[in-house]
Write a structure and sequence with these properties.
The chain is of the alpha/beta class. About 35% of the residues lie in helices and about 15% in strands. Bound molecules: nicotinamide-adenine-dinucleotide.
């Protein structure tokens, strides 16, 4: 099978940008396509827009002529393959919102050349590629999937900020519409990635990604529940997890926290819940995990109230500093971050809330928490009634709080230099 020389990556976010760069580094020419003109300009001038991602890695590929970005969809007619990495959120009713995927299909279909491979990478429910994406591509292009063009699904497993695995080294699961589709996708990804794992269909590949994220959601819920139960028994859940993690088999450590965040774990499991209903099936583990995880901010708030109470204060009227807006350590991604929920709940109880986050100097626009847009990160100072750790950024772990007089509530068990009034949540 002949090699791919030029591809397009649609959606240049947390997934699409590193994927584009990995193909470019492997000698494949990449045309990145996005609707966001700022991202396009940023890439073409060799600058990053993701804090954990250095500008040099973009500039190197742009200057070598292997990577460029555009908002012109007609450029798709130049490529041998199109990889789709657009968002798959939930809508206002918490049902799957495939509008970004299907809009992309409508955009690229008029420019599809015969023989092109289209691969969807966005996380989604089983059947999306073969039913939803395929239908729109066929209708708009007038071509037949599996005959005139080829179709595959390969879930992205990117974990932004992780050092011990990269797009290149994380094995890639691939399912295709036909054996030819699979073979083409295997050739394409094999040009840039170390390891490929083929499955029998697009549906199996879609279901694989959901299993991975449901696994995380359920296990995080489990340790969140155990945290509350063990605390009532006077047992430190972190000590217990550390001890259990010494077992060389049959256990994987998950850590409790203030609630789920990010574009994946709080959302993706519900793609399966929605699809399962069509088959008259219920996803009880997913629902229960969702229930436990969404209750965690209330648990943290109760700890904040307790800590203030020791001071003879209430949440109402207190000045509270939240440390960390990003949903996880050392990245600038604050989508679905529990920090927003904590800020809202504390404000609703009458507190004045500020935040600090070295990765998020200004709150970006969000659909659910629009009223925080533009709020600015402030300095960490010993002038608040209480400090609440919501994200375990490296900077906070080593920050010297030992001389601080206000209570510090740590929902991540991460502070090394603790103040006298230190509380875990
Ligand atoms: N972020 C992660 O860690 C991660 C990991 C694995 C899988 N995923 C999945 O990958 C997909 C993308 O996630 P992400 O985090 O990269 O999202 P993102 O929001 O960071 O990036 C998506 C990009 O797509 C662009 N876009 C939206 N509609 C478009 C359209 N019609 N045409 C062209 N561009 C369009 C947006 O402007 C944005 O730049 C989602 O399905 C997500 O669940 C994400």
């Amino acid at each position: 099978m002949s090699k791919f020389s030029k591809i397009s990556v649609v959606g240049l976010g947390y997934v699409g940008l590193p994927l584009s760069l990995q193909f470019a580094r492997s000698g494949v020419s990449v045309i990145g396509f996005d609707l966001d003109q700022q991202k396009i300009d940023s890439i073409n001038s060799g600058k990053t827009y993701l804090k954990h991602f250095p500008s040099e890695s973009i500039a190197e590929q742009v200057n070598a002529g292997r990577f460029e970005a555009t908002i012109d969809p007609s450029r798709m007619s130049e490529v041998d393959a199109i990889l789709i990495c657009v968002p798959t959120p939930l809508d206002d009713h918490r049902d799957p919102d495939l509008s970004f995927v299907l809009d992309t299909a409508r955009t690229i279909a008029p420019h599809l050349e015969k023989g092109v491979l289209v691969a969807l990478e966005s996380t989604t429910f089983p059947g999306t590629t073969e039913d939803e994406l395929r239908t729109v591509l066929e209708e708009v292009s007038g071509m037949k999937a599996g005959i005139d063009f080829h179709l595959a699904y390969s879930p992205e497993r990117e974990d932004p900020g992780r050092d011990d695995a990269s797009v290149k080294t994380i094995p890639k699961v691939i399912g295709g519409l036909t054996p030819k589709c699979v073979a083409l996708a295997e050739t394409l990804y094999g040009q840039a990635l170390d390891k490929i794992h083929l499955v029998s269909s697009c549906r199996a590949a879609e279901a694989t990604k959901l299993l991975e994220n449901i696994f995380r959601s359920v296990n995080i819920a489990l340790v969140n529940e155990l945290k509350v139960v063990y605390e009532a028994m006077g047992i430190d859940v972190h000590e217990v997890i550390d001890a259990a993690a010494t077992k060389p088999f049959g256990f994987m450590a998950f850590r409790p926290g203030p609630g789920l965040g990010g574009h994946c774990i709080p959302i993706d499991p519900f793609y399966l819940t929605w699809k399962a209903r069509e088959f008259g099936k219920h996803t009880r583990f997913i629902e229960l995990a969702g229930e436990i995880n969404t209750a965690m901010p209330d648990y943290v708030i109760s700890k904040v109230a307790d800590a203030l109470n020791y001071e003879g204060k209430s949440i109402k009227g207190s000045n509270i500093l939240i440390l960390g807006l990003a949903y996880k350590a050392n990245v600038d991604d604050c989508r679905e971050s529990p920090s927003f929920v904590l800020m809202e709940k504390l404000e609703a109880k009458g507190a004045t809330v500020e935040y600090n986050d070295p990765f998020v100097p200004t709150v970006p626009p969000t659909r659910e928490h629009a009223h925080f847009t533009g709020k600015q990160s402030v300095d960490i100072e010993n002038t608040y009634d209480l400090i609440l750790i919501s994200t375990d950024h490296a900077e906070y772990k080593t920050f010297d709080f030992s001389s601080y007089s206000c209570p510090l509530v740590d929902s991540r068990n991460c502070i090394q230099n603790k103040p006298v009034k230190y509380f875990r949540a």
